[in-house]
């Protein structure tokens, strides 16, 4: 839950865009974060009262500000694109293999339609192919993100740390071995993958609902895939402050529309193979900004 409406503009505790907060120093002209990436000064109560459409657009805005780092810190962002390119090429091979064998897979998956009239068989198998591609995209985007974050952990941690340092009040660096960091990332990824498998099976079943099935699967797949992505991408900031995966989910649920707006926008960009390479470091930077604002608005500390 977010805090109740806070103090008014005249109160010293009020967060005002023009007010200099010693805890969150605003970046100067020479800082690498583009304009607009500082804490916005919007109080938690204002976030609560904002409409859901505005919240969703606010979430998309975090991703847009993450893309701004390509202008101010191109070298760092290019380093972040390298792991995404390597992993993306592997996934691209898998996508090509799936497309080449799609007809065989669909015929194997729909044996019940073999004795139907030709127009009905064709429409059923076209729908099955569409549903299979949508569900495959959900798994591909999520696993691409998880694998890329593990492979490129040192690069993405540098991007996150730069955002934190520029915004001010960065958490202290935690000394941990590379193996420990990779193990924790894999563990969190697996805990997120389990519900994704269940939802993927449900989407496959729902996709065969006449007329609305494929559309519903596409929309829900983007929303659920976006939620998985935002939980995964915000791990750096929450982990550094001692938040568990459960705490992270709870915090993001307090700004659900903003989180899904950011995650769904990232999900749609990640569907485009080469655009995903550019979008990956941008999403990490945007997630750092989203995490900061979300954590600042929380009244409950991380669990012990």
Task: Characterise the protein shown here.
70% of the residues lie in helices and 0% in strands. The protein has 13 helices and no strands. It has helices at residues 44-49, 52-67, 69-72, 74-100, 102-109, 118-151, 153-167, 178-206, 213-233, 235-240, 245-253, 256-270, 273-296. With 304 residues, the chain is mainly α. It has a domain at 63-87 and 130-172 and 179-296. α4 packs antiparallel against α6, α5 (102-109) crosses α6 and α8 runs antiparallel to α9 (213-233). The two termini are 19 Å apart.
What keywords describe this structure?
disordered N terminus; elongated; 304 residues; mainly alpha; 13 helices
Task: Give the structural class.
Answer: mainly alpha
Nearest-integer average pLDDT: 79
Q: Report how far the terminal alpha carbons are from each other.
A: 19 Å
Uncertain segments are 1-49
Helix-strand pattern, N to C? HHHHHHHHHHHHH
Total beta-strand segments:
0
Query: Helical proportion?
Result: over 70%
Write down the oligomeric state. Answer: single chain
Brief account:
With 304 residues, the chain is mainly alpha-helical.
Task: Give the topology.
Layout: H1 44-49, H2 52-67, H3 69-72, H4 74-100, H5 102-109, H6 118-151, H7 153-167, H8 178-206, H9 213-233, H10 235-240, H11 245-253, H12 256-270, H13 273-296
């Amino acid at each position: 839950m977010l805090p109740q409406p806070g103090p008014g503009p005249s109160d010293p505790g009020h967060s005002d865009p023009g007010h200099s907060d010693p805890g969150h120093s605003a970046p100067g002209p020479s800082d690498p974060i583009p304009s607009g990436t500082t804490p916005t000064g919007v109080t938690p109560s204002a976030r609560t009262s904002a409409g859901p459409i505005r919240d969703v657009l606010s979430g998309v805005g975090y991703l847009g500000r993450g893309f701004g780092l390509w202008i101010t810190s191109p070298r760092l962002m290019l380093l972040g694109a390298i792991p995404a390119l390597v992993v993306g090429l592997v996934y691209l091979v898998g996508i090509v293999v799936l497309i080449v064998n799609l007809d065989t897979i669909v015929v194997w998956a729909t044996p019940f339609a073999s004795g139907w009239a030709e127009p009905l068989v064709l429409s059923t198998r076209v729908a099955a192919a569409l549903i299979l591609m949508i569900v495959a995209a959900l798994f591909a985007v999520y696993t691409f993100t998880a694998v890329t974050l593990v492979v490129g952990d040192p690069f993405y941690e540098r991007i996150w740390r730069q955002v934190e340092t520029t915004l001010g009040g960065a958490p202290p660096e935690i000394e941990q071995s590379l193996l420990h960091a990779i193990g924790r990332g894999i563990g969190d990824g697996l805990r997120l993958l389990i519900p994704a498998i269940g939802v993927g099976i449900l989407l496959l079943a729902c996709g065969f609902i006449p007329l609305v099935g494929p559309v519903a699967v596409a929309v829900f797949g983007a929303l659920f895939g976006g939620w998985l992505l935002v939980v995964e991408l915000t791990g750096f900031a929450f982990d550094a402050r001692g938040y568990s995966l459960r705490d992270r989910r709870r915090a993001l649920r307090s700004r659900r529309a903003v989180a899904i707006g950011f995650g769904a926008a990232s999900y749609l960009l990640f569907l485009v193979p080469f655009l995903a390479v550019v979008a990956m470091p941008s999403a990490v930077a945007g997630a750092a900004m989203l995490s900061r604002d979300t954590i600042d608005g929380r009244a409950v500390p991380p669990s012990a």
